[in-house]
Amino acid sequence: MAALRRLREAPRHLLVCEKSNFGNHKSRHRHLVQTHYYNYRVSFLIPECGILSEELKNLVMNTGPYYFVKNLPLHELITPEFISTFIKKGSCCALTYNTNIDEDNTVALLPNGKLILSLDKDTYEETGLQGHPSQFSGRKIMKFIVSIDLMELSLNLDSKKYERVSWSFKEKKPLTFDFLLAWHNTGSEESTMMSYFSKYQIQEHQPKVALSTLRDLQCPVLQSSELEGTPEVSCRALELFDWLGAVFSNVDLNNEPNNFISTYCCPEPSTVVAKAYLCTITGFILPEKICLLLEHLCHYFDEPKLAPWVTLSVQGFADSPVSWGKNEHGFRKGGEHLYNFVIFNNQDYWLQMAVGANDHCPP
């Protein structure tokens, strides 16, 4: 009965909201974007806008590429050649594809050179590597986390530690996965990853971009200084967060009596805008690309605009081993980890960060 009650319980969700100004030297906006590594969807909404500027459109269309490599042996990610070519010469991210974080073995390569393995109990014991139990295992430990610093290993390739890791991945317990990879390089060799993994099945992909104009959209009224809103004057940050989810999901916000799918409507006070531009990018998107988008949206109000604010929302991969930085991430009933910027015309911003049941509090 206790197990049934736990299944019926709604999972814990955590939403953290804060406000600051992009001109504040203590602003954390860059750090929060740069340490949220595994992003699969980026959306921005611009009220009172019918068409994107060429500069912003070019930025949107150049958020790729990323790569899909099939049946890639894990030991390929720890070779001296890979480390020197990709990790030391840019920002490289890798994530196992089509693996469930709570059930399967999952691997992530962080841009700082940390290789994170989330392994089931049998695989963990077979590798012979040192790790620790997952923080979300419960009473019966079924998952273990192994962290390997590839930058540290590369300093001494003759060390016993490197030999042990290499022996584990090549001989003791060879592991093979389908991987998504993306690389923000500091040079100009765009095709290096395709040629480097040419002996494997590798495909280059560009993120999918969906552009749409929303007409007569009812929008919440916001005041940058009031996260909690003011009755009959402005809406709360939480109300905006819910409203954005409805807009991104294309939910009908009319709350008509004969609508049996959704009774949700825009929070009050609200205003109707004639046009709003919605852009959604889906793929494997590096933090560096999102930083560029955020920076451009920060300058959106350099020239006078009718819009009082714009938003930038980013969703992470539900089955990535980490959310922010090295914070362990699990799925349980949702696997969500996401953040949203509300950018105001006075350079103030709201930052909203949300995680699910198996996650640490956002940083």
From TrEMBL:
Molecular function per GO: ribonuclease MRP activity; ribonuclease P activity; ribonuclease P RNA binding
UniProt xrefs under InterPro entries: RNase_P_Rpp40
GO cellular component, one term: ribonuclease MRP complex
GO biological process, one term: tRNA 5'-leader removal
Protein name as annotated: Ribonuclease P/MRP subunit p40
Gene name per UniProt: RPP40
